[in-house]
Amino acid sequence: INGASGGVGTLAVQLAKALGATVTGVCRTRNVALVRSLGADHVVDYTRDDFTRDGRRHDVVFDLVGNRSLTALRRALTPDGTLVLSGGGVYRGGSLLGPIGLLARGRLLAPVVRQRVVVLATSPGRAHLDVLREHAEAGRLTPVVDRTHPLREVPEAVRYLETEHARAKVVITI
Ligand SMILES: NC(=O)c1ccc[n+]([C@@H]2O[C@H](COP(=O)([O-])OP(=O)(O)OC[C@H]3O[C@@H](n4cnc5c(N)ncnc54)[C@H](OP(=O)(O)O)[C@@H]3O)[C@@H](O)[C@H]2O)c1
Predict the structure, then answer these.
(1) What is the Å distance from ligand 1's center to 45 Cα?
(2) CA 95 – CA 76 distance, rounded (Å)
(3) Which residue, judged by its Cα, is nearest atom 36 of ligand 1?
(4) Do 94 and 129 share a domain, yes or no?
(5) Which residue minimizes the CA distance to atom 22 of ligand 1?
(6) Between 20 and 30 A from 158 (CA), which of 77, 90, 125, 147?
(7) Residue 170's beta-bridge partner residues?
(8) Tens place of pLDDT per residue across the chain (174 aa)
(9) Looking at the structure, do residues 159 and 103 belong to the same domain, yes or no?
């Protein structure tokens, strides 16, 4: 899971563990302990190591960052593994079109390579939420909350999210 310390990644690590996977999470140094505490079996600090060049092959690579090429991401996959692309942020050294280009290239590549390339597109629905609720009630899924702000501090919360490299979720209380 590339982006394992983010709002999506922290939940993805826990869900993958709940489903029985052996999980490698990728994040920056200050988040290594957090990702390990969520159950990741291996954690790669992207400021020191490159998970696409360490020789490990994964059955699934879930990319939440969008700043690596398809070639690099596929290098981290087993020959018949699955690459799941899910966008990425413009502030991660990419251009506005960068993540969109990656998704478009992924769609074009999908029919002609043995590995599966999937662009994640989900629509929220009760069935999905029920699965998440069951995992949460069983203690297998706990949101990671960086900060909590009251409603009147929404501008400060958004500023923090956008400029301070927030960790996982920032919550507004009402
Ligand atoms: N398809 C969908 O339905 C869907 C839904 C929601 C989100 N998304 C996509 O998923 C992406 C992630 O969302 P999020 O809410 O989890 O974002 P987020 O909370 O901002 O998390 C960003 C993640 O990216 C990592 N990261 C930041 N800069 C990096 C860099 N230079 N190199 C490697 N990793 C870096 C962060 O790691 P550190 O903090 O440890 O540096 C963190 O794990 C979004 O950009 C969005 O496009 C898709």
Answers:
(1) 15
(2) 24
(3) 3
(4) yes
(5) 6
(6) 125
(7) 147
(8) 999 999 999 999 999 999 999 999 999 999 999 999 999 999 999 999 999 999 999 999 999 998 898 999 999 999 999 999 987 654 445 555 556 778 888 888 878 888 899 888 888 899 999 999 999 999 999 999 999 999 999 999 999 988 888 899 999 999
(9) no
Which helix (H) or strand (E) segment is 150 a member of?
Answer: strand 145-150
Contact, 98 vs 90, CB < 8 A? yes
Amino acid, single-letter form, for residue 47: T
Nearest-CA residue for atom 41 of ligand 1: 28
Largest CA distance in the chain: 51
Count of beta carbons in the 10 Å neighbourhood of residue 125: 8
Exposed, middle or buried: residue 115 (CB in 10 Å: 0-12, 13-18, 19+)? middle
- Measured distance CA(138)–CA(109) in Å, rounded: 39
Closest CA to 154 of 133, 132, 171: 171
Q: Taking a C-beta distance cutoff of 8 angstroms, is the pair 166, 160 a contact?
A: yes
